[in-house]
Amino acid sequence: MKWIEIYEKLVNIDTGPDLPLEGKLRRTSFLTEILEDLGFRVEKREAAYVAFRGKPPYVTLIGHLDTVFPEGESKRRPFTIEGNIAKGPGVCDMKGGVVILLESLKRFLQQNDTDLCVVLNVDEELGSPLSGEVFKEVAGMSSHCLSFEPGRENGELISSRKGIISLWLFARGKKGHASRLDEGANAIVELAFKVVELTSLNGRFPNLTLNPTIVKGGAESNVTPDKAEVYFDVRYYDDKEYEFLEETLKRLSAVHPEANVSYTLKLRRLPMKEDPDFVNIVKMSAEEIGMTVSFVRATGGGDVAFFSQNGVPSIDGLGIPGGKMHSEDEYARLDQFEDRVNLVVHLLRKLGGEKNVR
Length: 358
What we know:
Strands 1-2-6-3-7-14 form a six-stranded mixed sheet, sandwiched between helices. Helices cover about 30% and strands about 25% of the residues. The protein is built from eleven helices and 16 strands. The protein has helices spanning about 5-10, 20-25, 30-35, 75, 95-110, 130-140, 185-200, 240-250, 275-290, 305-310, 335-350; strands at about 40-45, 50-55, 60-65, 80, 85, 115-120, 140-145, 155-160, 165-170, 210-215, 225-235, 260-270, 295-300, 315, 320-325, 330-335. It has two domains: about 5-160 and about 270-355, Zn peptidases (Aminopeptidase, 3-Layer(aba) Sandwich), CATH 3.40.630.10; about 165-270, 2-Layer Sandwich (Alpha-Beta Plaits), CATH 3.30.70.360. By secondary structure, the protein is of the alpha/beta class.
């Protein structure tokens, strides 16, 4: 099957959040046949396919098969090509990256060989709650990690990623008649003060951001609310930023004497740390085939962090460049496909060592 046929078939398969993980694995099982044809031994895990070729330490290639789009989305707007632009649900994030991964392996293995592992999971958009354990296991057997999340529209690669923190802030007050301010303690007012206080931290550090995205509170229009809560999407990179946030939260206090505030803090994804030596290897690989690449720090988290945090040299953004991810306007740049594949093939040759040439 040609890569463009795999691409179309994959995009036209719904793998959204309303489908059970087993259903996503079943719908994408044809990819295991492709990997087996390339000489991989494929294992089906609870939320991922894991494929091995050779023995550890492996050069590990990772990607995810799930999207954020609901069931029926691919029928409503299937895979289409307009000039050099491909569209469809997940066409960039990251079914296009999976196709680049497979095509790169196919071309590499035609004349080369090395010890390889591939992990394709189906719960990345959910935070990888189950496949995270698979990634930790494979990271302990890997020499390098290549991640195929989308590249930037201009072709930039990703050398590092922020970590993700979930923060819920709760306020408890006292009910009262809404017209009698002295009889109640308004939980929404307490939260309002805290939202202003916490969002004022934005800009204090280069990478720490706090954005309130969900607010709940109040039951009746004429009753002072005694309960309210707000969710913050928090991103960070350095440990000192995380520690600063914790210390700030510990010092929060209510304004009204009959109110109190509390919080829960959950680390959802660790940051992907930059490996300067590996970045230089990628730059050299690109230069050797006449390409120039640049790198950015992504604000979003990714599975590559499981490897980076384990000391495995890692690079991300090797997937197809594009934009408008997680929206109906999502697109991928097909004119960048060959450059991406050529870069990955050359990088695999560079990392292959003595097993490189058959």
